[in-house]
Amino acid sequence: MSDQKLKDPVNPSGPVIVRNLKFHVDRDLCIGAATCVAIAPNTFIMDSEAKAIILDTAESDPDESIIDAARGCPTAAIIIEDTAGNQIFP
C-alpha cells in the first residue's frame, strides 16, 4: 500500500461519509478490477489484497464521480446510501 492516508484506517473499506454520501466497499464482492480507482482516483486505491479501500482525499472527487465509480464496479461491491440511510446504489 502507498503512503496515502485512509479515510478510516481502522475500517479501510468503510463505511465512510463524504458530504451527503455514506458508502463502503463490500470486500467479499470486490474482485480488484480497479475500475473505481480509474473513475474516482482521489477516493479509491487498491490495498495489498487487491481490495478497494477509501482514501482521506475522497472529498476531492465530486459525488457524481463516486457514484459513477460504484456504477462502474463489475460486481457492484461499492454500496452507497444517502445520510438518511436510503440506498442510492446498487
From TrEMBL:
GO molecular function, one term: iron ion binding
Keyword Acyltransferase attached: no
InterPro entries in the record: 3Fe4S_ferredoxin (IPR001080), 4Fe4S_Fe-S-bd (IPR017896), Fe-S_cluster_ET (IPR051269)
Keyword annotations of the record: Electron transport, Iron, Iron-sulfur, Metal-binding, Transport
Domain 4Fe-4S ferredoxin-type, first and last residues per copy: 21-49
Pfam families, A to Z: Fer4_13
Superkingdom classification of source: Bacteria
Role according to the record: Ferredoxins are iron-sulfur proteins that transfer electrons in a wide variety of metabolic reactions.
Protein name according to UniProt: Ferredoxin
Organism field: Candidatus Roizmanbacteria bacterium CG11_big_fil_rev_8_21_14_0_20_36_8
